[in-house]
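ARCHIVE CARD
SHELF: 3
SLOT: left
DATA:
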Amino acid sequence: MTLTLETARPRTTERVLRRRLGPGRRHRFTFWIGPALLLAIWSIGSKAGFISPTVLTAPWDVAIAFKTQWTDHDLLGDILASLGRAGVGLAFGVLGGTVLAVVSGLSRLGEALIDGPIQIKRSVPTLALIPLFIAWFGIGQEMKLVTIALISMIPIYVNTHNGLRSIDGKYAELAETIGIGRPEFIRHVVLPGALPGFLLGMRFAVTSALLGLVVVEQYNATSGVGHMMTLAEEYGQTDVLVVGLVIYGLFGFLADTAVRLTERRVLGWRRTLEG
């Protein structure tokens, strides 16, 4: 009986520690708690007079400005234009980062040729290259897409490459033992093992793409949320500026939420194994 208790105690302690230190039970609407709390603080502060309208427009005034922009100034068209730029640039960035990471992560020659230049690029902020991109591509749509693609490519490459290089060597030994060929090993072991790194890179890439979008839409844009904010700045419309900031914030929050939900669904097998 004593032996049974002694062997059971470490397992019980391990379960308790895992319960305390683990992520805990996840609920469907937890993503919205933080933004809702922030909105409540903003509303209460504006209503009580702690937040001056000259500093930050009240939420209800922002809602009125949003309605005005929607009905009188084609806000929907601006939102779709911004989403189009961000989406196309992000797609090229994800594709380029993934291909480079796979080539570099699975080949010594590929790593020798690719990883060095990528690390050099990491030390040079993409936004600092905008004047050079303007000289190369002009000030139109091409410059904007290249900037967004490049700024989102780096986190995809770094995290996916790290995921590929972090595969436990025991799996390679097991593959050799049971006679699995290299293509099957890459397809069934390496690529699924690198998926968590890729999805983590996606979260950073989405944020980076939106950061690039905010900046490039200040350059000669004739549509988009940034164009709306530029006009609002010229006319001193603080409420419209806040509308643009809220829209950019919602872009980022919803995109990050989508990636996190995808990660939870795709990587459900990890929680099964850990449990």
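SLOT: right
DATA:
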Amino acid sequence: MTFAWTVAPALVPQERTNRWWPPFRLLPLIAIVLLLTAPVETPGAGATGRVTPADVASVVAVAFCVGYAVHRRARPLTPAAAAVLGIPAVGFAVATVTAADPAAALPGFVRYLQVFVLVPAAVVFLVRDARDFRIVTWCVVALALFQGATGVYQYVTGTGASYMGADVRAVGTFGPSDVMGMATVVAYGLLAAIALTLRTPANPPPWLRPCALAAAAALVVPLVLSFSRGAWIATAVAALAVILLTGLRQAVRALAVLAAVAVILVGGLGIGSEMISQRLTSITQVTDAPDRSVNDRYMMWAAAARMWREEPATGVGLKGFPAHRDGHASIGLSSGSDTAGAGQTFQKQPLLSPHNMYLLVLSEQGLIGLTTFVGSLAAVLLVGLRRLTHSRGRATDCGLVAVGLMIWQTVDFLYADIGGASTVLTGVVLGLAAWWALAEPDEAVTP
């Protein structure tokens, strides 16, 4: 018997489920997303690597995919999908083998493989059509609303992470040691909600667009209260791109609504207006009068570049940046950032990465790793964008979500890198984008 490269519809179990009830095979993906609502135990200063319930769920999802593929004797990915998703593993493996201490680099290899290869591949395998895509997307929006509501409560009650001497920074359940966790999750949900508002499937239920619009408006508040400049910039860029991709007329209306929401939230209601104003102003001062955190970031970027110059092909090895940082950074680099609040006592959080994913990959994996890593991301983004512009109205809501999330991720990587409990969700998001870009055409455009 000959088996196709992709799982044909005949090979997929004919699940007779309610239209709005997720099929059994999606449960591992849903578990990954929803388990991120669980509070994350705050590690001690300098602690690295902790396994969360969502990480365990990702292992279950990958194991399920392997078992199902073996049982059906089918290759679940197209050759293009296997190449695009698998090529980063080459860079990860080379950087691990050539590291000064391969054993110390091994945990980094596993983490990178999980986030950028295995979880995205599992999403591409488990998501069969646009309906599955929408179910997972709404789970991401629900997670964002939960984390966002938690963050707003922290701001209102003064139980958030410490910021400018007050415990008001919204961090959700991720804690002050992972201040980007809530901002990342909320940004994912906000962009997905915006896309679902602008584009709906054929014959949508009457509640879909109003709910998506309400979710988008609600998620603006916790994103602002996260005080994350990088997340603000990435969200603004991605949201603008998503809006422009819907056409000029609809873009003008959407931008007018967003402007009105911003005026009401910040100007009319005065939500954190003074702190937000100072934070926004600091974005324009990153070259003329940068604060300490920006100065530290510049120094770590320079240190990453120096590491790459010493090992241009393979880098210093996965997990090698912290060990080589002091030997390449300026003497003015801080010993760490101060963290407190949200149930945590004061701690000095060491600076273990350059807070730029591309420079982190360049310093630890060299040109080999950077080429494979950026090449995979670029392929997913460009092919997904091309498919969206040629989709002729079918499942364009899925395409708009996928492209928007991918743009956000590629921009955010300029200011952040992987780390923290929310990292596994990045793998899910990359998988959704990869499904739209690389799945078989009949699967990717199902109404």
